[in-house]
Amino acid sequence: MNLHADAIAIATAVRAGELSAKSVVAAALEQIAAQDKALNCFTTVTAEAALARAVEIDQMIAAGQDPGPLAGVPFAVKNLLDVAGLTTLAGAKIEAEKPAATQDATTVRALKQAGAVLVGALNMDEYAYGFTTENAHYGPCHNPHDLARVAGGSSGGSAAAVAGGLVPLTLGSDTNGSIRVPAALCGIFGLKPTYGRVSRAGAFLFAASLDHIGPFARSVRDIAVAFDILHGPDPADPVCSTRPPEPCLPQLAQGPQLEDIKGLRIAVADGHFAKGGQPEAFAAVAQVAQALGVQKQVTLPESHRARAAAYVITACEGANLHFANLRKRPGDFDPATRDRFLAGTMIPAPWYIQAQRFRRWYQAQVRQIFESVDVILAPTTPCSAPLIGQEKIVLDGEEVLARPNLGLYTQPISFIGLPVLSVPIHRPGALPLGVQLIAAPYNEALLLRVAAVLEAAGVISAPITSSSGHKMIDGMG
Q1: Which of 20, 158, 178, 199 is catalytic?
Q2: Is 471 assigned a catalytic role?
Q3: Distance (Å, rounded) from C-alpha 56 to C-alpha 60?
Q4: Would 277 disulfide with which of 298, 382, 401, 424, CB 3.0-4.6 Å?
Q5: Nearest-CA neighbor of 4 among 221, 162, 220, 182?
Q6: Does residue 154 have a cis peptide bond before it, meaning omega lies within 30 degrees of 0?
Q7: What does the pLDDT look like over 372-424, one tens digit per residue?
Q8: Is residue 154 flagged as an active site residue?
């Protein structure tokens, strides 16, 4: 076995005694040492602590104890999540001056309790404000499919580490598309759960009314098991839902077939989601729709205004959070981040209030649509990964700024907190793209069931890309 295996396959082998957790973690650390100089995914590697924890897991198994469903699985987290003993950077130079966190974020603790082994913290856009992970302080994160291109953002390190085969599982955050955009550009799975479904306690927030935490992985079942471990009530996060957990993994059939989702009402989003992108983005959606036998279309009204309102709310909430440092030390911000925060400080209050009013209206309109539709399909990004440093792209014949427009199709959806799974479409000789599967709140299981059918049919997949090969995991020892 090597690190091409998904998390569940690794954990199954560790729990059965076919592999030691120590050998799995050691292989991951060797892979990180070999490849991360080129990818720049990691800002911190916790090698010593990871190997010590792996030994503890092996001892638990030897003693007949159950270390959890992710026994020995290496994972890493976006560096805005607290890790006890590490300073939470949030991609910022300013935060590097702060003391180390004294405890893990709720999500980090949950994965550790499930037997997963933390191997480090991951690169991101400063304060999660960006779609490219071109960080002025910690360097750009490179796309494993083409090192000259961006990995997407703001969770770029989280996506590239999984796509490059450094680890099988990571965590990121999504405010306007920061899980889905990098998942699409790196060709892997990324889940943005329902707003409030996964705790954000111990996360450095960006825009509090829009922030979500979610997993990246290379298989549908890995996303399912991670979500099952992560979601549920948490009194430490005031917006976390008190709704009891609803496990998804047991709902995924073995060898799923189209018949397993017969009866689900699936439609393709038109209007805003069917224009403004390159033809291959829409071809990816058509490919998924054809595989599912979907012909119905649906319109999410005023989605262009939803995107604009999301921008206003994001800029105002983010700027307010960093207002003191913007006044005291603007030169210590990443220039690209600083300028957008400064713009946010000058947005009139009535704009923010009106954007929130519109948000409630849009949420009600989309809620009505979900009375006649179960799952909606839409492109994740309007194009494949741009070059690092590329300022402009051409969309629908018009030259536009690259960074903000990567979120063209993701911003209207996270604006109202819907669960979304970005699934990867790989194209021979071309860069990968993503398709969003969107459902009504608390219907993550529906998304995963549809994705499992597509994965079983070979329509979507997340193969590791690397020119340097991968470390084989030795057996016990």
Answers
A1: 178
A2: no
A3: 6
A4: 382
A5: 162
A6: yes
A7: 999 999 999 999 999 999 999 999 899 999 999 999 999 999 889 999 999 99
A8: yes
